[in-house]
Write a structure and sequence with these properties.
Elements (H helix, E strand, L loop, with lengths): L1 H8 L3 H67 L1 H7 L8 H17 L3 E8 L4 E4 L1 E3 L9 H8 L4 E5 L6 E3 L8 E9 L6 E10 L1 H8 L8 E5 L5 E3 L19 E8 L2 E9 L6 E7 H34 L4 H14 L14 H42 L1 H17 L3 H18 L5 E3 H16 L6 E6 L8 E3 L4 H12 L6 E10 L2 E8 L6 H11 L12 H13 L4 E7 L3 E9 L9
Parallel strand pairs: 14-16
Antiparallel strand pairs: 1-2, 1-7, 3-5, 4-6, 6-7, 8-9, 8-12, 10-11, 11-12, 13-15, 16-17, 17-19, 18-19
Length: 594
């Protein structure tokens, strides 16, 4: 024993933890498995009974619905004016004209309900007429038991299963087991006196199809008994006729286990309140045991898999000591690649947690330095823009353009007036008093002014269309984001194609974004060049000198202001045209630059 303890003490901590962890898991799983199988055996039998009873109830509902529908048909027949007229006749014979008229009425119902084999009308005088049914002998039909029973209960529709011994036959060759009869008395609407009876024979095909679509276990079956204990419907099975009614307990629902031909069967039943029928399901107990056996097999498989997984988890658990260090190394690698938004989440306050906190502090300092540099560069560009604006002398420019406009108006040069007006708007909106954000209305007007100027040069070469919803006009966007892209569409798309081209500028709201699209039907962009342009726009590649700056400048301004989730995406197909899509956040109030 001491030698074993010494051997155990000399093992590594990882080995000890693995052994203890696996032992605890093994004892727990085996205990739960054996107890669970025993408990589940009882539970599964109860669940199987409940499931079977629910299935029986569903079949019962389907059959009741089907019978109720046919009862309604029988009721409509009894209320038909021609039928009521026939029932009030006192003569034992009816004319051929009356027979034809009634047969036409009955045919209407049989044509619409293919399960109806035949319909017979019998009044109290003994006169009868039918569709596809005949009287076998000359004996009066009013003496038939089904006629008398219907008269005694005029408010009910009687259901007769296996109708044998009747003085009635049908023109179709069916056995009594394939027929179900419905009988309903007809009463005078004024006196409420019974004047006759309607008999309707039905095929059992629909009921058979309902039962054929139901499977109880692997070899179970269902059948129906009427209120007298007679079989209404049963599949071809010799077990049915060996089941004795006294085995079934009293009540509208229940179950019992009985031995039949040396095998145990589970018998479940449910009584229908609508038709007074008893729906019975029979399942061999072997089906139950087969499920239990399968569960035992699955339990052992799951136990084995769980033990294997426990071994893997044990190895994983012992490796958790170095996992924080590996995580920190992974974060450092990402930071090396430029992902400065990474942070280490310290779960402990040990040395590794302190190291992680120092790493987070270092990243915050780096981000602060980057922001300082960014703000300095931004202020530098704004200062340069202000210098440029000061050099332009906007008031002097407006006055000069206004003078030129009056001179053009004196000479009635309308086209020159239009171009000067567009140029004035172009400068006014572009300067915008030093503001970086302008309303969508002004941005669109700026683009329209640019297009008017371009149309004076490319009137035969270019057409354009704006489609901007008015509800977007009050939102604000970075200024001068449309004009550079329209310029690209003209010089790289429309000019490179043959014939007249068209540029469409549209916008729509997508959630909390404004999505602008500049679409041209120009020459398009080769796939390799298109992919390179989109990589530059996504920041995956540096821009080379042979590319212009307009498209990338707009993209950079948007991303520097709002982040990389916004910006420009280019779609194009060579020879068919190009679509440039701008995603810009919806800004309610105008901001000042800086």
């Amino acid at each position: 024993m001491r030698a074993y303890l010494r051997w155990w003490h000399d093992r590594s901590i990882r080995f000890k933890l693995n052994c203890i962890f696996l032992l605890i898991i093994l004892i727990s799983i085996l205990t739960l498995s054996f107890w669970g199988i025993r408990t589940y055996s009882n539970y599964s039998e109860n669940q199987a009974d409940q499931s079977t009873l629910q299935m029986i109830h569903q079949v019962e509902s389907n059959v009741d619905y089907y019978i109720d529908h046919l009862k309604d048909v029988l009721y409509y027949i009894s209320q038909d004016s021609e039928v009521e007229k026939f029932m009030r006749m006192n003569e034992p014979e009816i004319t051929e004209e009356e027979v034809s008229r009634i047969d036409k009425t009955l045919s209407m119902y049989t044509d619409r309900n293919k399960e109806i084999m035949g319909i017979m009308l019998v009044n109290k005088s003994g006169a009868f007429t039918s569709h596809d049914m005949n009287r076998i002998t000359r004996d009066s039909l009013v003496e038939e038991s089904w006629f008398q029973d219907a008269i005694k209960a005029p408010s009910e529709t009687m259901i007769i299963s296996n109708p044998i011994g009747r003085n009635v036959s049908t023109s179709q060759n069916y056995s009594s087991y394939d027929v179900l009869s419905l009988v309903h008395a007809v009463a005078d609407p004024q006196t409420k006196e019974v004047t006759g009876v309607v008999l309707m024979d039905l095929r059992m095909d629909m009921i058979k199809s309902i039962f054929e679509n139901v499977k109880l276990g692997k070899s179970g079956f269902m059948y129906i008994l009427d209120h007298n204990g007679n079989i209404v419907y049963a599949p071809t099975n010799d077990i049915v006729y060996r089941i004795q009614g006294k085995w079934l307990p009293d009540g509208s629902q229940g179950s019992v286990t009985q031995q039949i031909k040396g095998h145990a069967y589970r018998i479940l039943f449910n009584d229908s309140e609508t038709n007074k029928w008893r729906f019975i399901g029979v399942i061999p107990n072997d089906d139950y045991q087969r499920v239990i056996t399968d569960i035992q097999l699955y339990t052992f498989i799951v136990t084995f898999i769980t033990i294997v997984l426990a071994a893997l988890l044990s190895a994983y658990f012992t490796g958790t000591l170095i996992r924080p260090i590996r995580k920190l190394m992974s974060l450092m690698s990402k930071v090396k690649n430029g992902e400065l938004n990474q942070r280490f989440v310290a779960e402990t306050k040990d040395e590794i947690g302190q190291l992680g906190n120092s790493f987070n502090h270092m990243l915050e300092e780096i981000n602060n330095l980057i922001n300082v540099v960014y703000m300095e560069q931004k202020k530098k560009r704004e200062a340069e823009l202000q210098v440029l604006q000061a050099q332009i002398k906007p008031h002097f420019l407006y006055n000069t353009l206004d003078t030129i406009g009056w001179m053009a108006q004196e000479y009635e040069a309308d086209d020159i007036i239009e171009v000067i007006g567009a140029l004035t708007n172009l400068f006014r909106i572009g300067l915008n008093r030093g503001n970086e954000w302008i309303p969508v209305r002004d941005e669109v007007k700026h683009a329209e002014s640019y297009m008017i100027i371009q149309m004076s040069r490319y009137m035969d070469k270019l057409d354009f269309k704006f489609d901007i919803p008015e509800h977007l006009y009050h939102y604000h966007v970075l200024k001068l984001i449309l004009q550079p892209l329209i310029e690209n569409a003209i010089y790289h798309g429309i000019k490179a194609r043959t014939g007249k081209g068209k540029i469409s500028i549209s916008a729509k709201q997508e959630l909390d974004l404004i999505c602008f699209r500049i679409i041209d039907d120009g020459a398009g962009i080769p796939p390799e060049k298109l992919e390179e342009i989109n990589q530059i726009l996504r920041g995956e590649k540096m821009r080379e000198d042979h590319y212009g700056i307009g498209l990338f400048n707009v993209n950079e301004r948007i991303q520097l202001t709002y982040g990389t989730a916004f910006g420009i995406q280019v779609y194009s197909e060579l020879g068919k045209g190009t679509t440039v899509e701008i995603k810009h956040p919806m800004v309610q109030a105008m901001k000042k630059s800086g």
